[in-house]
Amino acid sequence: MLKKISLSVVIPAYNEEKLIKDTLEKVYEYLSKNKHNWEIIVSNDGSTDQTSKIVNSFKRRKVRLVGNIKNQGKGNALKKGIINSAGDYVIFMDADLSVSLNNIDIFLKEFDKGHEVVIASRRIKGSKILVHQSPIRENMGRVFTLLTNIITGVNISDFTCGFKGFSKKAAKKIFANSQIDRWAYDAEIIFLAKKYGYKIKEVPISWVNRQNTRVKLNRVVLETLRDLFKIRVNDIKGKYGNF
């Protein structure tokens, strides 16, 4: 009889051949010390490098590969990974491990307290940014947060940190109904968490900026604004259903 899985760790990946082996080694080592039964899911977003091959070399170590043949966006990749997860709790994280793995246990304690959605934050008391982004990126992040607060009506200090956790019930409900595939997927996830009435907790974290990010600002600003308004339009049209 198969053991019930307590924790699923989902890692979205797009052309991460330089990082993914080291990342999986570290996550595997960390989780191996954990008393819970767990799984690691890498959701490949149409990588054209050796990402899939490297991930498949870990398949005997409780690592599964899911995802897309063609690139469809990080939000879409996360949706595929989380829909395919089996854990009582699901935590997703970026492949660059900008947030310490120690936060996995911190998140699990928050779940034990009754929180159903736990969000890592770089902008609340107790958080530390050990390596900063460029000033323009940090300022744009603050503007994005302000606009998202206004447009979605959700008062959260940090929407875009790539480390979030969910109870199984919350994860399946939120991601089954998510519509945004690319830049504003974080805002939509949190909007839906509030809409469906889940208990949300922000946790302060220490964060290290990944220096070689491939995101180009001039490509994402207008798309992000479009998608933020799309969240509101989707809600008005009833595309998210009811709790």
The overall average pLDDT, rounded, is: 92
How is the largest sheet built, in terms of strand order?
Answer: 3-2-1-4-7-5-8
| Strands, total number | 9
Helix- and strand-based class?
alpha/beta
Distance between the termini: 34 Å
Instruction: Using the CA coordinates, give the radius of gyration.
Output: 17 Å
Shape: globular
CATH architecture call: Alpha-Beta Complex
**Main sheet?**
7 strands, mixed
Strand content: 15-25%
User: Fraction of residues in helices?
Assistant: 40-55%
CATH superfamily: Spore Coat Polysaccharide Biosynthesis Protein SpsA, Chain A
- Low-pLDDT runs of 5+ residues are none
CATH topology: Spore Coat Polysaccharide Biosynthesis Protein SpsA, Chain A
